[in-house]
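Try it yourself: sequence plus magnesium ion, in.
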Amino acid sequence: MTKIAAPTDDVLQEAAALIKAGDVVAFPTETVYGLGADATNAHAVAKIFAAKGRPSFNPLISHGSNVAQLEGEGIFDSRALALADQFWPGPLTMILPKHPRARICDLTRAGLETVALRVPDHAVALKLIETCGVPLAAPSANRSGTLSPTSPHHVAASLGDAVPPVPLILAGGSCAVGLESTVIDLSGQEAVILRAGAITADDI
Ligand code: AMP
Ligand code: MG
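Structure, out:
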């Protein structure tokens, strides 16, 4: 059974406990609802791929609560630091070389030597990540190949009967942006926008 609950302090504690125990939780961000799990726990991340029916060669974005946390996961050069300063928290995902001491697991990265990182601009998402104390891998909370959810009811309609089940959806209303994050690859010399999104090339 999937429970849909407003993100009170108690429910946020429950969500964090589920995630620390290796389960998945759907939560709101400013872009779309995410299906989150501990990005450092391969067993937990495997549940995301299974519940969504997402192929495991498609890497996940890891969400942090601040730049300092993510500096332990990716190697930030001056371009990355400037973009983080300008756009985080916000709908910009950066692909960076993996930090040698990164905790984000192989499955989250689909085995790549790079990591996809973002700090979401949503109080519930930030509180959840902070309480968990680890980055959360979180693609959109829908079956792979279907429309991304912008309300808790969209999530329930898409993943309510998922296997493994999604035990909890944090209900945070409609997503303000309603569009996926922009993905920029900074792992090479030249910055490349891999996915158009809420932030435009002009903004960057
Ligand atoms: P989604 O989670 O479906 O919103 O999509 C995340 C996007 O980021 C996908 O297009 C992934 O292919 C892309 N992505 C995530 N991690 C990496 C990475 N390490 N290198 C390149 N692309 C990535
Ligand atoms: Mg998606």
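One thing you can check immediately is this: The mean pLDDT is 97.
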